[in-house]
From TrEMBL:
UniProt KW Transcription keyword: no
InterPro entries membership: DNA-bd_HTH_TetR-type_CS, HTH-type_TetR-like_transc_reg, HTH_TetR
Domain of life: Bacteria
Record protein name field: TetR/AcrR family transcriptional regulator
Length: 212
């Protein structure tokens, strides 16, 4: 009996559906364990297919990582761009809009943040270069926002803006990590929590009252 190519080695699951399963599992594995510690064999075991089948579908481990990274990078970059677009008069501050957009974009796949911000990518590899492209694009948006914020408070030192940009990335990463450890928290609940934290920071003088 001849097996239909779209079902070969997938236990009756169409190839397109199986590829989505692989990408979901791989994104979680890369996000949780990092590129270096993640193996194609572990991903195959999670999905219930063979390692050769994953190579047939996606190629090398790096090719599989890139197949996970591009949707994540595009989704997060698009979310930040939309959040930083010209706001309505009654819109929340930019920082809260960006965080709300990130939480919404990551819901259902929270570990995906660490696919993009993975410190274990091989230096100068295609994977590292592609991740750097998305990181730089997001950092450029953050740099615009932090520079505007500091200028509005009368602080014009470009090094202040650069330092704040890196602090902002660290804050986002810390919040996502906390969120992963609290799976019951929705994007809306996280945004409200951040609003309360920022309000507390203003109350003790850590941030500017009007612009934070």
């Amino acid at each position: 009996m001849t097996t239909h190519p779209s079902k070969a080695g997938t236990k009756g699951v169409p190839r397109a559906a199986r590829e989505l399963q692989v990408l979901a599992a791989a994104t979680e594995e890369f996000g949780r364990h990092g590129y270096e510690a993640t193996t194609v064999a572990a991903i195959a075991t999670r999905v219930g297919v063979t390692k050769p089948l994953l190579h047939q579908y996606f190629g090398s481990k790096q090719d599989l990582y890139l197949a996970c990274l591009d949707p994540v990078g595009e989704r997060l970059l698009g979310a930040v761009r939309t959040a930083m677009a010209e706001p309505a008069a009654d819109a929340p501050p930019t920082s809260l809009r960006v965080l709300a957009a990130l939480f919404t974009a990551l819901e259902g796949q929270r570990d995906a943040w660490f696919v993009l911000y993975d410190a274990t990518l091989p230096p100068d590899s295609d994977a590292a270069l592609r991740a750097s492209y998305y990181r730089t694009a997001i950092d450029d948006l953050a740099a615009t926002g932090t520079a505007d914020l500091l200028q509005s408070t009368g602080a014009g030192d470009p090094l202040d803006a650069d330092a704040l940009k890196y602090a902002w990335r660290g804050l986002c990463t810390a919040l996502v990590r906390w969120w992963i450890n609290h799976p019951d928290q929705s994007p809306e609940a996280m945004t409200q929590r951040c609003a309360r934290i920022f309000a507390a920071a203003r109350a003790i003088g850590l941030t500017d009252d009007e612009h934070a």
